[in-house]
Design goal:
2 domains; 18% strand; Cobalt-precorrin-4 Transmethylase, domain 1; 287 residues; single chain; five-stranded parallel sheet; Methyltransferase, Cobalt-precorrin-4 Transmethylase, Domain 2; globular; alpha/beta
Amino acid sequence: MKLNALSRNFGLGLILILVTITLLPISSSAMTVEKGRLYFVGVGPAGPQLATLQAIDVIKQADVIFAPNYIQKPFNEYLKGKDVHIAWPDSVYKVGNKPYTTVKTQDELKELGRAIREHARDLANQFKKEMAKNKSVALLVNGDPCLFSDLRWFKQYFNNEEFEVIPGMSSFNAGAALFKADLTQPRGLDTVIIYSPMNEPFSFRSPIPKLAKHQSTMVFFMAGNLKRIVKELKKEYDGETPIALAYFIGHPDKQKVIKGTLNTILDDTASEPEKEMYVIYVGDFMK
């Protein structure tokens, strides 16, 4: 008798479990890409291993892909058989025959900015033509689209309802992980200042000393002239303040960090041939 009752209770419990499982909502992490829309896709700093699942979903589903060559190469596995276009040819980033990193005059800076804006306008028109054909368009953006990215050049040509932004890992985040430390130093201001002097007019007084007054962690993208950055920082920071250059962030075969202080970093990096592919970190969080 007890055995029969136990069997009935067990059977009822099993039925309840099955019903509960059946009623649970089935969710999917895959994102559905809509036709006739534009997607700014952050793909991280160094290929698929640092891209999000959402970014990969959009790449797989998009009808038309725009991306610079340096992004197409590591994502080739996901681009095979797709309608792929070069977004930013190398020629856009040159002033005459010189790369943008060698720009030294205000006129050259203006010429560079004009070339980028004109190409962005042409690209926006290409996006619109594809969208008008009811195709989904994805522009693959290095790092995160909301931080020093292509989004600044294109947003003016589209209404918010026409595009989506797919977040990505910035080189700022991936680089910070190399220090195994909290950048928001609990001993001081819980603040990180991210800045790029790339577009500063040459006649413009640098805001770096004003930013450095806060004595918070500072991160520099596209820093350009390291000597000048150090000079400006030393107006407010002690010469023994730690500074580091993180090179080729996210690339296992080339990634490295050179650490020093504001007093030593120019000597520490003097023999380093790479003058562009790095992010600068400054602050006591490295102590």
